[in-house]
Amino acid sequence: MADITAARDAALAEIASAVSLDDLTSMTTRFAGKKGELAGLKKQLGSVESIDDKKAAGAAINEAMAAVDAALDDRRGELRSEALAARVEAERLDLTEFMTKPSRGKAHLVTQAWERLEDVFVGMGFRVAEGPEVETDWHNFEALNMGEGHPARGEFDTLFVDHVPPGGTLGTTLLRTHTSPVQIRTMLTQEPPIYVIAPGRVFRRDTPDATHMPVFHQIEGLVIDRDISMADLAGTIEAFTHAFFGKGWNSRLRPSYFPFTEPSAEFDIQRPDGSWIELGGCGMVHPNVLAAGGLDPEEWSGFAFGFGIDRMALMRHGVDDLRAMYADDLRFIEQF
Ligand code: PHE
């Protein structure tokens, strides 16, 4: 009986001091297993002579084993909840830093300019039109009076898409190099008179530098109506310049060349300090372009313009490097 009590007490003491679930696993084999101490004592019961002593010892061993089992279970439960608490503590995320310093995000400089441009033109009676960024060669070049092999194509460093359209050929699907294909899409889907602007993203195979990015933004303008003249174009651009930049700014047109407009012009705007900056191209819509858009050039006439949004945002805020606008540096972004 003394051996049983000693074995039980030793087991219970060791179980109580177990510090890990691994400890408990080995203790379970040692104290409660078939080769354990108590099991060993049970095997010796056969050599006890008195029936009463045998009964008493058997009962004591069973009680001791039950006590050891219960102690193992209890300690296992304790260690498990300790382990869980430790894990919860370790995985806790401290979010207080973000909660104590809330800051408000804002629209990107280009988005701000884009939205302001829309406001100004919508205020002048224009509607907003859209077209896809992945375009066909036909919409981007052919219909704009730049047939295959036209030298002006070379000025648009085109990124082609690895896609063969049904019944078409490789090299005829591209990322639009300008927003002018929206002119064609609009003419094909809307009855004139047409007064639309089309802001959007455009792509050219350019190495980024202070004034170039391979992905940038343009806003296209298209007016188709009866008896539209170059004077309407010049007046629209002047009105836009005052509305967007302010009263101290002026605009001028300089003769230029685009395959899709005739006559064509480059338009510049003058800062209040007198200096001129080139902003975009424009002109009277070429008869071939009207025809590609399904319109009779004898009946309809119009003008179109296109200029860079990024560059305008740059100028309005006096930023001297286009790359700063896309560098995601908070010290820069938070200034606007
Ligand atoms: N699409 C021309 C460009 O990207 C700009 C332009 C638009 C010129 C409309 C004339 C008329 O350079």
Report on this model:
- The chain has 336 residues and is of the alpha+beta class.
- Helix content is 43%, strand content 20%.
- It has twelve helices and nine strands.
- The strands form two sheets. It has a seven-stranded mixed sheet, with helices on both faces. A two-stranded antiparallel sheet has the order 2-3.
- Strand 7 and strand 8 form a beta hairpin.
- Helix 1 packs parallel to helix 4 (51-91).
- The longest helix has 41 residues, at 51-91.
- The relative contact order is 0.10.
- The model has no long low-confidence stretch (mean pLDDT 92).
- The chain binds phenylalanine.
- Phenylalanine binds next to strand 8 and strand 9.
- The site of phenylalanine has 11 residues, from strand 8 and strand 9.
Q: Short description, anyone?
A:
The protein is an alpha+beta fold. Helix content is 43%, strand content 20%.
List the keywords.
alpha+beta; elongated; 336 residues; binds phenylalanine; seven-stranded mixed sheet; single chain
Which small-molecule ligands are present, each listed once? Answer: phenylalanine
User: In oligomeric terms, what are we looking at?
Assistant: single chain
Annotation, overall tally of beta strands: 9
| Chain-averaged pLDDT | 92
Can you list the strand order of the major beta sheet? 1-4-5-9-8-7-6
Low-confidence stretches: none
C-alpha end-to-end distance: 87 Å
H/E element order: HHHHHHEEHEHEEHEEEHEHH
As a whole number of angstroms, the C-alpha radius of gyration is 41 Å
| Total DSSP helices | 12
- The backbone outline, from C-alpha atoms, is elongated
Strand content: 15-25%
> How is the biggest beta sheet arranged?
7 strands, mixed
Structural class: alpha+beta
The helicity comes to: 40-55%
